[in-house]
Amino acid sequence: xxxxxxxxxxxxxxxxxxxxxxxxxxxxxxxxxxxxxxxxxxxxxxxxxxxxxxxxxxxxxxxxxxxxxxxxxxxxxxxxxxxxxxxxxxxxxxxxxxxxxxxxxxxxxxxxxxxxxxxxxxxxxxxxxxxxxxxxxxxxxxxxxxxxxxxxxxxxxxxxxxxxxxxxxxxxxxxxxxxxxxxxxxxxxxxxxxxxxxxxxxxx
Length: 204
Hints:
Layout: E1 3-9, E2 16-27, E3 30-38, E4 44-53, E5 58-65, E6 68-74, E7 78-83, E8 90-95, E9 99-101, H1 106-115, E10 124-132, E11 137-153, E12 160-169, E13 175-181, E14 184-188, E15 191-196
Parallel strand pairs: 9-10
Antiparallel strand pairs: 1-2, 1-15, 2-3, 3-4, 4-5, 5-6, 6-7, 7-8, 10-11, 11-12, 12-13, 13-14, 14-15
Protein name: Glycolipid-binding domain-containing protein
Organism: Streptomyces eurythermus
């Protein structure tokens, strides 16, 4: 069960945003990721709880940011309920999308798991609902993912395969690289893996 810590920063000016302390593991139904976020001063910023099925679809998502909360799942596309800080008002949303995304590295692993690309695969388009900080506002985004390289590296625990994806935002054409090993993000814009206490899990 990998556990460790990511640092999150603004990908444009590198302003530190948060640290995400996480653990994740494959399970009988798919994969689960849980984390808590702390701000630069150590204050609690929120949490992530994401469970996927065997096909990479979101069985359950629960996000907290400040006093905002989102709960969602794959249902007629993706469906979610967003609750305001007072707890008095909840708004429901539904979009014909494939999955969710956001600032957490968990969503990059989840999208890669959903698409299951190979180096010979064509670039694949995916529609995602992004929840943006700090109020978890929903926004529908279209991306293109391509697996451009998959390379095995020797480690003390056997070979570790690192996959390099090229991700394109279809509304702006902006491209960036994402490096993933198993269920751990090694590098991506705004994300650095600072500590890893056990090797990444290997998906079948």
